[in-house]
Each structure stands twice: as structure tokens, then as C-alpha cells.
Specification:
mainly alpha; about 75% helix; transmembrane helix; Tetraspanin_EC2_sf; transmembrane; membrane
Length: about 220
């Protein structure tokens, strides 16, 4: 059977995948609570993608337990697990890359998001950051609160810097975490391959030993 150290590494990586599932699901649920800036940066589509990814990881964990408990002479379950891990990997790369690409043109992308916001939301953002408009005080500013003053509004640098700074911090953490999940998936895939190879090798020696009448090689 595979060495205890190899099995231990595999088990540790499998638990890490379960933790990744928990993190992904937890944040996808918790971040649905109303939050002025987070709602500007993270959409329901993003949260649904994160939830789906977490569920995929959780299902993979269940499959992995069933696979590792198969008879030592078989490898079908572990091979099926690796195909599932490949699917997880593809989903992780796609979601992480979408978030990363979005960060490459944050000022432009969040200009479009700003355009879609209600007057109340824009007014609250302006009050929170003490700024007016998006690019400057004349760019889609709402004349309420501090921006009711025309002088202040005209001299305002706009909210683009504050909004994109928050977005950059949040989205960078998101796609970094997602790519971290990818590292776990790859490591678990490789560990599973090692266990498969070990099982194949042991089964081959068992058959050779059986042909020799169980006398072994000594």
C-alpha cells in the first residue's frame, strides 16, 4: 500500500480542498449582506460563481473519500477523481482569470458601474469619500450633501481614485485566493497520481509474487 507519508500528504491536501470549499461558500453567502462599496465591486454573478466553485470543491472532497477507500488493487476511483480535479481546475482558472482581466481596466470598468448606480447610492459614496462625481465634480455628480456646494464640486478630484483603490484591494484578494485554490487542486492531482502509480506497482508485484507461488523475490 502507499507509504504513510504519501497518504498523509494526500489527506492534508484533500482537507485543504475542503477548507477552500468552505471559504468559497462562506464568503459567497456572507458577502450577500448589503454593503455600499462591496456591492459596487462584487456582483451577484460573482457571488454565484464563488458559490458554484465552493460546491464543486465540496463534491470533489466527497468523491475523493469514496475514491481513496476503494480496494487497493483498483485505481478506477482515483482516476475518476483526477478527471473531476481537472474540471475543478478549469473552472478555477476561468473564474480567476475573469476577475484578473477585470482589474486591468478598473477605471473604465467602474465608470460603467458608476453609470448604473442610483442617485442615492452615488450620493452615499460621495459623502463617504468626500468627493463629487466619478472622474471629477462635473462627471455624473449628484448635487446632494457636500456636493450641493458648486464650488466644492468643481474643485473635487472625483471619486474614481477612492472607488478603484477599494476595488483593486478587494479584487486582487479575490483572484489571488482563487489562484491559491488552483495550487491546492494541482497538488492534490499530483498526489493522487502518485498513489495511483503506487497501487499499480504494488498490484503488479502482487501478481508476479502470486505466479511464483507466494515465495517473493528473496
Amino acid at each position: 500500500m502507499p507509504s504513510k507519508s504519501l497518504t498523509g500528504v494526500w489527506a492534508g491536501l484533500d482537507i485543504a480542498l475542503l477548507i477552500a470549499a468552505g471559504i468559497s461558500i462562506a464568503f459567497s453567502v456572507i458577502w450577500r449582506a448589503p454593503d455600499l462599496l462591496r456591492d459596487l465591486v462584487i456582483s451577484d454573478t460573482d457571488l454565484n460563481a464563488g458559490l458554484g466553485l465552493g460546491i464543486m470543491f465540496a463534491i470533489t472532497f466527497v468523491i475523493s473519500i469514496a475514491a481513496i477507500l476503494t480496494p487497493k488493487s483498483t485505481t478506477g476511483g482515483l482516476k475518476a477523481l483526477n478527471w473531476v480535479l481537472i474540471a475543478d481546475s478549469a473552472a478555477t482558472i476561468i473564474i480567476g482569470s475573469i476577475v484578473w482581466f477585470y482589474t486591468l481596466e478598473e477605471r473604465k470598468n467602474f465608470s460603467e458601474v458608476w453609470e448604473e448606480q442610483s442617485q442615492d447610492t452615488i450620493g452615499r459614496i460621495q459623502e463617504q469619500f468626500q468627493c463629487c462625481g466619478y472622474y471629477n465634480g462635473t462627471d455624473r455628480a449628484i448635487g446632494t450633501g457636500i456636493c450641493a456646494s458648486e464650488t466644492f464640486a468643481l474643485n473635487s478630484t472625483g471619486c474614481v481614485g477612492a472607488v478603484t483603490n477599494f476595488a483593486d484591494y478587494t479584487l486582487n484578494n479575490v483572484f489571488t485566493s482563487i489562484y491559491g485554490f488552483q495550487a491546492i487542486i494541482i497538488a492534490l492531482f499530483l498526489a493522487t497520481m502518485c498513489i495511483i502509480n503506487k497501487r499499480v506497482e504494488e498490484e503488479r508485484f502482487r501478481k508476479i509474487d502470486a505466479k511464483r507461488g507466494g515465495r517473493g523475490f528473496v
